[in-house]
Design a protein that fits this description.
By secondary structure, this protein is mainly α. The chain is built from 1 helix and no strands. The longest helix has about 50 residues, at about 1-50.
């Protein structure tokens, strides 16, 4: 019985580790998208401003 419990705990730990890594990856992707959006907005503003001047 102890061995099966140990296996279950080890499997649960693996699952939690994978979930944590997925969250980190998702957060990294989200930040990259936000940076890309900010750059695009800035480029549009620069273009609009240059046409006004």
């Amino acid at each position: 019985m102890m061995f099966l419990e140990l296996l279950r705990v080890a499997e649960q730990t693996d699952i939690e580790t994978r979930e944590m890594q997925n969250r980190r990856l998702t957060a990294r992707v989200m930040r990259a998208r936000q940076r890309e959006e900010r750059r695009a907005e800035q480029a549009l503003m620069d273009l609009a401003w240059s046409r006004l001047c």
